[in-house]
Design brief:
Na+/H+ antiporter like fold; globular; mainly alpha; single chain; 304 residues
């Protein structure tokens, strides 16, 4: 357990650096916003591009791996959404925000740096095989649930097609057959930007958390947090271990991906539809604060 904590603590230590810097006024809100934009628009797409273009990607689609993760995600989303409606009296968009917050992981700011730190470069391929479809699936599902039959599939497609992470995935796949012909100085430049993704993402997460509080109270955010940090990784582990064929070395990656705290996209969805903003921000803040303990526990369990 101590070894797992030693892996997790530096990750959340950088989050604390960003949090403290914002609270002390060392970094202002605009600087935090700019750092987050740098991570999303440049650094992380470069990391994904480099991995997909030059990494050891399996020839066959890992359907068992994807099924283990996303069936668990769907189950957690449904359970928490139903609890939000029937146990806490939330309606409409707020029920979608609750389920989305419990199911969608903070992959960019927490998942990618922590998993690569814990498992090294060997985790890059299974990690980005999840990253590649995580955002399109979750954001599309959330938008369709909010807008119902009125949702424009073309509009959703346009938003996803212009998302920097999707662009990074597309460029990585397109460059893969020609990777050896790309000049080495260009790869070094891409690599330098990719190396900046993890520390910048963690500091940006801390800056963002400085403006979140428990605006929605404790009971429902605590329920969302339990679904995200405990139920989701448990279901992924059960499905990947006992139900679907998944490479043994990939199971810890999927479990830790699921064990990440609530992603900031739930907050962005709530802001877009002006409903459940306090709920989403509370879930992000609470789950991130508790994840330092729960993720260390999951890491200890999956690494034996």
């Amino acid at each position: 357990m101590l070894d797992a904590l030693l892996v997790v603590l530096p990750i959340f230590g950088l989050v604390l650096v960003g949090f403290a810097a914002r609270k002390r006024g060392i970094i202002d809100e605009a600087a935090g916003t700019g750092l987050t934009q740098f991570v999303f628009a440049i650094a992380l797409p470069c990391l994904i591009l480099d991995t997909l273009a030059r990494g050891d990607v399996p020839l066959a689609e890992p359907w068992g791996y994807w099924a283990s993760y996303f069936l668990a995600l769907a189950a957690v989303w449904a359970v928490v959404g139903l609890l939000a409606r029937h146990a806490f009296g939330r309606v409409g968009v707020e029920t979608v925000v609750a389920g989305f917050s419990a199911a969608q992981s903070n992959t960019v700011l927490i998942g990618v740096p922590l998993i690569l730190k814990a498992f090294g470069d060997a985790a890059a391929v299974p990690l980005f095989l999840l990253v590649a479809i995580h955002l399109p699936i979750t954001m599309s599902a959330a938008t369709l649930l909010v807008e119902g039959r009125g949702a424009s599939l073309a509009g959703i497609a346009r938003k996803l097609a212009t998302h920097p992470i999707i662009i990074g995935i597309a460029l990585g796949a397109a460059l893969r057959p020609f990777a050896e012909g790309v000049p080495e100085p260009l790869w070094r430049m891409i690599g330098m930007l990719a190396d900046a993704a993890a520390p910048a993402a963690l500091v940006a997460m801390g800056i963002a958390l400085a403006r979140y509080g428990l605006a929605a109270g404790l009971p429902l955010p605590a329920t969302i947090t339990a679904g995200k940090l405990l139920l989701h990784p448990l279901l992924v582990w059960l499905l990947a271990t006992f139900v679907f064929p998944v490479p043994e070395a990939w199971i810890p990656v999927a479990v830790m991906f699921a064990a990440c705290p609530s992603g900031i996209n739930a907050f962005l969805l709530a802001q877009t539809y002006r409903s459940g903003v306090g709920l989403a921000s509370s879930a992000v803040a609470l789950s991130t604060a508790l994840a330092v303990v729960t993720m260390a526990g999951w890491l200890w369990l999956v690494t034996g």
